[in-house]
User: Which sequence fits this backbone?
């Protein structure tokens, strides 16, 4: 079993969520790339990793923008995805981020370009696309996500596997509970 962890916007392939995953599933089983800021390059890197590991009982875990990437990749490769506080419309929600950025984990400065939004729109999927993979999509939400509407996301995925935890925030504060649920219900 292998897990590819897909981080969100302005984040990186290390941190508390990843530490929880590595402790629970083994450091050698959790792959956590720091993705390029350009979504097209990020998707190409993730597709490369999936192609190399798709025979390894592979799971994708994506948070926020990483959740969007995971859903796109599940639709393309039919691999299971565990999405945490996912961004369903990043080509809209990230419009205000076009311009100069500073990654809050790496302190790297870069330019988030309008063309990145166009690529995100190009790879969008429909709900009917996702319904074909309903048994492979697991949604975890913190009720008090201050950036993305968790109730709207829960409604979007109402016929899917959804767990919403009370309180929390966009960074997701329920990793121990999520891992326990994964071990009981998802990753066997």
Assistant:
């Amino acid at each position: 079993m292998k897990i590819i962890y897909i981080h969100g916007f302005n984040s990186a392939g290390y941190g508390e969520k990843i530490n929880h995953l590595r402790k629970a599933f083994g450091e050698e089983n959790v792959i956590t790339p720091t993705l390029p800021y350009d979504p097209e390059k990020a998707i190409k890197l993730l597709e490369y990793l999936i192609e190399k590991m798709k025979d390894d009982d592979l799971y994708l875990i994506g948070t926020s923008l990483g959740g969007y990437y995971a859903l796109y990749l599940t639709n393309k490769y039919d691999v299971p995805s565990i999405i945490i506080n996912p961004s369903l419309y990043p080509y809209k929600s990230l419009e205000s981020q076009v311009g100069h950025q500073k990654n809050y984990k790496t302190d790297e400065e870069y330019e988030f370009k309008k063309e990145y939004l166009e690529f995100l729109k190009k790879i969008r999927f429909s709900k009917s696309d996702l319904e074909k993979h309903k048994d492979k999509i697991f949604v975890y939400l913190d009720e008090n996500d201050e950036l993305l509407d968790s109730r709207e996301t829960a409604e979007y995925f109402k016929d899917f596997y959804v767990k919403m935890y009370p309180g929390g925030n966009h960074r997701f504060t329920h990793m121990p509970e999520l891992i326990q649920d994964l071990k009981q219900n998802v990753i066997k």
In short: Helices lie at 16-25, 39-53, 65-77, 90-93, 114-122, 127-131, 150-156, 175-186.
